[in-house]
Amino acid sequence: MSENAPLLQVRDLRTHFGTGPDAVRAVNGVDLSVDRGEVLGIVGESGCGKTVLALSILRLVDAPGRIVSGQVLFEGQDVLAMRPRALTALRGRDIAMIFQQPKASLDPVMRIGQQIAEPLRLRGGRTRAEAWREAVELLGAVGIPNPEEKARAYPHEISGGQAQRVMIATALALKPRLLIADEPTTALDVTVQAQILELLRERCRALGTALILVTHDIGVIAQMADRVAVMYAGRVVENAPVARILGDPAHPYTRGLMRSAPVMGAVQARLQEIPGGIPDLTRPLRGCAFAPRCDGRRQAGPARCDGQTPPPFIPAPGREARCWLQDGAPAAQPAPAGWS
Amino acid sequence: MSAALSPARPGGAASRVPLLRAAGLVVRFPVRAGVMGRPKAWVHAVDGVDLTVQAGETLGLVGESGCGKSTLGRTLLALRRADEGSVEIEGQRVFELPPAKLKALRRHAQMVFQDPVASLDPRRTVGSSVRMGLDLHGIGTRAEREAAVAQVLRRVGLRPEHAERFPHEFSGGQRQRVGIARALVLEPRLLVCDEPVSALDVSVQAQILNLLKDVQAERGLGMVFISHNLAVVEHMADRVAVMYYGRIVELASREMLYADPQHPYTRALLAAVPSPDPAQRGGVAAPAGEPPDPARLPSGCRFRSRCPLAMPRCAAEEPPLLDLGQGHRAACWAARGA
Predict the structure, then answer these.
(1) What is the pTM of this model?
(2) DSSP E strands: which ranges in B71-205?
(3) Which candidate from B235, B272, B282 shows the least CB-CB separation from A191?
(4) Is the pLDDT score of A169 beyond 60?
(5) Model ipTM?
């Protein structure tokens, strides 16, 4: 594969929970790509499918969830077709993942240093002593004070912020090319969040690791992402560079998201609401999933918004928006048959 | 109506009595109980808090997890007792009231919780949950209660027929509307909202914040709005109190607190909020170090272990909430004019 090819490519990925007419279409046809060293933010509200998408990339979705169709290409290799051994080699070494609840992800009866050392020993070929020494170094690199002493601590003896530092150290121990972080600071206080974001940014940059950052927080996206994919009801409705998403969103849902959160230093009398709530994903969506809540529906043509799923239009190079308001711009691809 | 609630106000200056006043409030929890259950240490969840709320005013209460803001909120409504200090609602000292009087007072001092699911009985219809307060207080006839429930449901943006449904049939935002309806049906004059939008998505959060602001303005409610989200508090509050380990460390009008914070902890909190402008990246001055063990706070100022301005006096003497003028108060020896 060429050096310019994306590190990760996801094509028309679908992950459903359950089968038949009641299946929840949590991920419902997602296309995206991540370049080497790039930070892709995936933003959306609860139930939009962002976490299931992240898990699907590593094939970590548990029953009753299953990947129904699509492709996940990592450096050109099809992850969905990988044999168990290749998949095990991929996870942790090439692609690592960290989660919202760091303490739940740590083994409560294993010393912290050991949890970092283990993958170095088992997968990185280090001896026990080398792995331990490196684990202590890694703890220092993620800003844990007295790393030698803390390496011998158990997870219950450290704070949530420190636990997330340990998770980052573990995830980056084998210098993966991609880190997937699912709401890594959502459970943390704002002052600790600032430290962890800074750490993630610095470590990923130092190692050249690309980052997929899943979050509901626009501020976190603004601080971290190069490019942003906005998800709604299992689909990416807009994908653009971060400055465009925040400054000049092309999709009415993105615009609504940006406007509805209060912004510090810009007090308004009233907040802009997005009326209604998220759609029921057990029902097949007809047309644009956002249409019932959309202030652009009338302008774009209610019949079309309610009846036909918009394809990803390209309003400008490097930007995509699934909205009929962008009709006239070239489409990335025609909506495949059976999309409804 | 308020005259009927407290006919004899101390001092007689009815208009001067604040809706809510807390003085010297302390709530502590024992930790590491030894043999015979003797506490070996105490965590002061609330450690000497004074505050007032006037009718029609929203006091924002902001701080990080474990700072005691939820415990303070519950204590203000006498949902738990204080170990020291007093709370007065419309001039009545709530911890000294006999049960019947406290119950009567509670009607007018209601709470909205973060998780309306946990506070709604899953086997009761929503209408019945909303009506329960009216039933308990014996307000009106059955028909009047039903009418009041229908009216309040409409006010919070639900339909009267929603009264027949059960909590699981509602989305998170709708459940919070039910939680607000349940508080409003009793026509409170004081509302304590504890993280009312923290469990909600941002598009729904805007709906609930607008609703709370609207009903507050309509009814002239006094409100205590507790949140860890500084942007939400700025949107909602007239005055803001910042809590750190049980203490109010800064108290000011919203404008002054956000434009000219005087306590280093407030500054750190504000600086840590990620800016939604990608042009302003990084360089965040997050406070150094980890939050201290609440059972072993530093001597003197409890923030000094993380404070960039700490000086010898901070270890020796705990700064009181100093008056900096114009209602701006900060517990810091380095504050302007302190």
Answers:
(1) 0.88
(2) 84-89, 92-93, 109-112, 190-194
(3) B272
(4) yes
(5) 0.83
